[in-house]
Amino acid sequence: MNSAATFQMIINKILWDLINTREVVSFIDDVIIRTEKEKEHDKAVKEVVKQLTKNDLYVKPEKYK
Description:
Blueprint: H1 3-14, H2 16-20, E1 24-27, E2 30-33, H3 38-54
Antiparallel strand pairs: 1-2
């Protein structure tokens, strides 16, 4: 019943440091990384994947854009 809200809360907690820098935005099961430079983008993507993996969450690479 509250699984979407619970998942959103978990993602926000896991990615809070990145969300707080305004480089990352999360909305339920979408994580949007917005940076101006490609090098910064690559670094942010690595950090998001690192934080998710550290918390036993995984992403499907085929869903990346």
